[in-house]
Amino acid sequence: MADKVRLGLIQLCGCSGCHISLLDLHEQLLDVLPNLEIVYAPIIADAKEIPECDVFLIEGGARNEHDEHLIHEIREKSKVVIAWGTCAVYGGIPGLGNLYDTEQLKKTAYETESTDNIGELPSDEIVPPLTNSVMPVPSIVDVEYVIPGCPPRPEINAGAIVALLEGRDPELPKKIVCDECPRTKENVIPETFKRTFEGTPDPEKCLFEQGYTCVGMGTRAGCGALCPSAGVPCRGCYGKTDEVLDQGSSLANTFAAAGDEALKISDKSALFNRFTLPAALISKKQE
Amino acid sequence: MGKITIAPLTRLEGHGKVTIKLDDSGKPADVKLHITALRGFEQFVIGRPAEEVPRIVPRICGICQTAHHLASVKAVDAAWGAQIPSAAEKQRELMHLGNMIHSHALHFYYLAAPDFVLGPDADPAIRNVIGVIDAAPEVAKKAIAMRRVGQSMVEATGGKPIHPVTGIPGGLSKSMSEEKRDELLAVIDTMIQYGQDGLDLMKSLNEKYLDTINSLGVIDTWYLGLVKDGKHNFYGDTLRFVSPDGSEKMEFKPAEYLDYLGEHVVEHSYVKYPYNKKVGYPEGLYRVGPLAMINVCDSMSTPLAEEARKEFAETFGRPANQSIAYNQARLIELLSACERAKELLEDPEIVSTDVKAEVEPKAGNGVGVVYAPRGTLFHNYETDDNGIVTKANMIVATTHNVPTMEKAIQQAAEVLFKDN
What we know:
The complex is a heterodimer. Chain A is an alpha/beta fold.
């Protein structure tokens, strides 16, 4: 079976949602799988050692020293490395941890009201020590491709795999979420901003223009605008487009058109960089 | 003294390794299960507007994300004193069942079944879901179909199949369409049939593996599950503990969890060890998940699953304490989830657009509990006057099981090393 692509898959600081999205190809899996030899994938198979691979999909970034070590090992053993999903590409939701220092994260986790032996901590000599911040894969090693999305839609995963099988470069959507959104726009700037539970949004009109803090205008397309279609604002989970340097700054730029009202929005750092903080220009809270 | 390390642990969604220390005679003297990842959600939801938290915490787990979304929004509802419309409750419950169907099908057919269908001694290179597709394509096709229907149920109600978004304080941001309801109704009877086929498959495997099931990973523990009026309920309102011999029961409401659950920090794992606080640590270690749910309930809430539960109790006892019996318990729940989904799909309120009550953010403390596919799941938040989260505590499904998984591995290692 030398013609099969030797594929490796791993979940590091992610949630396994990208793996599940791959399984969400459902019946199509039966067409894709025969072309692949899955040589390493802790979630579904029992191989213990990372072998030489043609293509390796890394889900999640690095939160601890073991993750970092594995990313280097995968790079050494793989011809093509793909940062797969938003956590791998930009840090994702776990990257919100970068708003706090690591000691604070641990202190909170091990001092909850339900904890009986406060003061004790897991030993860094037994469990892998946490790194100072969450790091996306491309900040640790060079990668051939990135596939953002939380998670990437199954058809994006399939498209990338088929492209690689055919010797082409996987391509990412170039547009923004607004281009896929069915809501109509009138090109107006909201006078005030609302929180998601406030009022009842008009089901046909642009959520941002109705004053909801939608961030679709600064977010790469590919999801099919599922969130605004379901009546809630986009939170930016596919990250920035190729046209801009930084998702947070491009969003801040748009929102600034509303003037002082934009300043009143609570928690702007985790709104404009909800999924991308570790890859942002301002990526960590300054002490 | 020798030491065996198993790393990484495979066919599970988290990160773990096992170390087994052997004494001079080669017997396993000490078994440790190390959970090697920590992300710190309890810290980084602090400072976020509470309505945003149900959109953040699904990333705790990409398999049972819906359970996190729903436990989280229930906690915010409770903190703000929101009364949600009954149609929203039903549509949220259907979302939850969709996740249960996908996850239970995944867990059994994709993760556990390779050991049974291909056999525990099969080459590790083929002992996976792809091996199952090759060896038993009919089984694989049913598994794929159940996952597909489960995920489309979540998408129809939650807006996205992975990390749903419609749960907002006061209800839902959108109701399910009649078109989606009709699509799901058209396939639900087939799913119920597949659920029964799964149980038949399991029972035929029992004939082959019953000795193994009755000898490996058999441990006495407390059990914790979710019930409603004493019946098994994925979305229930009451927690119930049952003692290892089944003689003692304790019931409590989600808001009372701190009186009943304690957590103990251990040095070898990022996961804390939860225990029944009324019993103490470590005597009060307990199990959650399908086996616990079947053990604690008086009966299943749907007829075919109740038949299956009775048969299960005859085969394994009550409470059943065989860890491998989790698989059959999971299949009973898979069947029950399909049956309950049918009841909901046939209820006219399942497409009602009255799914959102007005709410006001305020200072409060709320607990949200659902039964996630791997066990009871607790989210607890405190909010300030503006509804911003100031404090959070989460005890997630697998966490409850980690200490008893360690005990089960210890027991299995003792049996296996004795035979060898």
